[in-house]
């Protein structure tokens, strides 16, 4: 989430400045964030998956990388081809710029890569826009403060909407809707393959309902570990299925915070954004193929 908050506005702003599709830029930023979340050793999702099934993080990250690699390669190629087409058909005269004027974007991206707290990163980015704008004469102090106020106002709807969704989720959990779903689906297991489908579907559904892939893994992991041991499914595959499907579905949910951010900053409709969301679709298809053909099922000690 920190990556998305820091990078999505920058990605869309850079896309607008370069004259390429802002919807594609937003979708690419979301894809990159979720790809990183599935392979990073410091990812909270991987940490809870590792603890939940009793498997080393590096083994889960390695398998996630293998599963995600086809999706990331195909998505990158598609973006490159589409961007080249856009640049060939779009005028590139979007106003002159200098290195100094894009420095705030560089500051935000650079500090994000260092692992600095996202709130501090964004605060420094905002401060740099004011300092550079005022000293270069492109914006006055009061114009700068008005721009900040306008940005805060535009985010008010997102804050209210997120609060309403969170309240609805709490009601679902309070009335034990998720527990009922788990018990019902467990009656449908016929073997290892159907067990893997169950783990994937349940984690994806909980992730979409709670808008949090880490929470989805926490809820699913105890049952997934037990079922995996029962049907001789490797623990790293159980963990990988939970992390892959929870993040893949989350990036397609219309009311996910990352999707709302991209829509807000890019002035986009959901359908505009989803049209370029190649990565999650390819990732989910890859996951389904791995389940169907029984790949990575046997446990191999490392």
Walk me through the structure.
The protein has 302 residues and is mainly alpha-helical. It has 15 helices and no strands. The longest helix is centred in the N-terminal third of the chain and has 33 residues, at 57-89. The chain is elongated. The chain starts with a helix and ends in a 10-residue tail after the last helix. The model is unreliable at 89-94 (pLDDT under 50).
Count of beta strands = 0
Order of H and E elements: HHHHHHHHHHHHHHH
Taking pLDDT < 50 over at least 5 consecutive residues as the criterion, the unreliable ranges are 89-94
Number of helices: 15
Categorize the overall geometry.
elongated
Largest sheet: none
- Could you tell me the mean pLDDT? 82
> In percent terms, what proportion of residues is strand?
under 5%
Structural class: mainly alpha
Q: Kindly provide the radius of gyration, computed on alpha-carbon positions and rounded to a whole number of angstroms.
A: 21 Å
State the distance separating the first and last CA atoms: 32 Å
Provide the helix percentage.
over 70%
